[in-house]
Specification:
The protein has one domain: Up-down Bundle (Four Helix Bundle (Hemerythrin (Met), subunit A)), CATH 1.20.120. Helix 4 (74-88) crosses helix 5 (99-109) and helix 4 (74-88) packs antiparallel against helix 7 (133-143). The protein is 59% helix and 7% strand. It has 7 helices and 4 strands. It starts with 6 loop residues before the first helix and ends with a helix. With 147 residues, it is mainly α.
């Protein structure tokens, strides 16, 4: 079972992104954050709606970017949240400089769908060995620096 992110972790990631890159702190829509937390886990009749880690990451990224739950930094936060989720589930993304920025713009401006975003992540994925719970907590802190 994947290691999903909590509402508190999303807010922590957002705060770190804003601390590192600038902008306004704060939540614009708490319900949108709750939706972001729950949607990657959704299932219908016992079948997951988003069966791969890459689709789940795409849901995190797109929903934060599209629904603007925070006052500022939604594109940066969306990309970072997806990356932290993947890292917590033993997947590292190997992207060249500027590729995360381009991805965020494609999601925001070109309205990329979940499948397109998932493919972007999957083609840049490097699988890691399983992490301990402590290593996963450190990952949230480390991954949010510099995004």
């Amino acid at each position: 079972m994947p290691d999903y992110l909590s509402e508190e972790e999303l807010v922590l990631i957002h705060n770190r992104v804003v601390d590192e890159t600038g902008g306004l702190h704060g939540i614009r829509d708490k319900n949108a954050i709750q939706s972001v937390v729950g949607q990657p886990q959704q299932a219908v009749f016992g079948k997951e709606l988003y069966p791969t880690l890459y689709l789940k990451a795409a849901v995190y990224a797109r929903n934060i970017i599209a629904h603007h739950p925070f006052l500022d930094g939604n594109k940066r936060t969306g990309i970072t949240v997806a990356s932290v989720f993947l890292a917590n589930n033993s997947v590292e993304i190997d992207a060249k400089e500027g590729e995360f920025y381009t991805l965020a713009l494609r999601i925001a401006e070109d309205k990329w769908e979940y499948e397109e975003i998932a493919l972007w992540y999957e083609t840049r994925a490097v699988l890691l060995r399983k992490r301990t719970p402590e290593a996963k907590r450190r990952s949230v802190k480390r991954r949010t620096k510099g995004r």
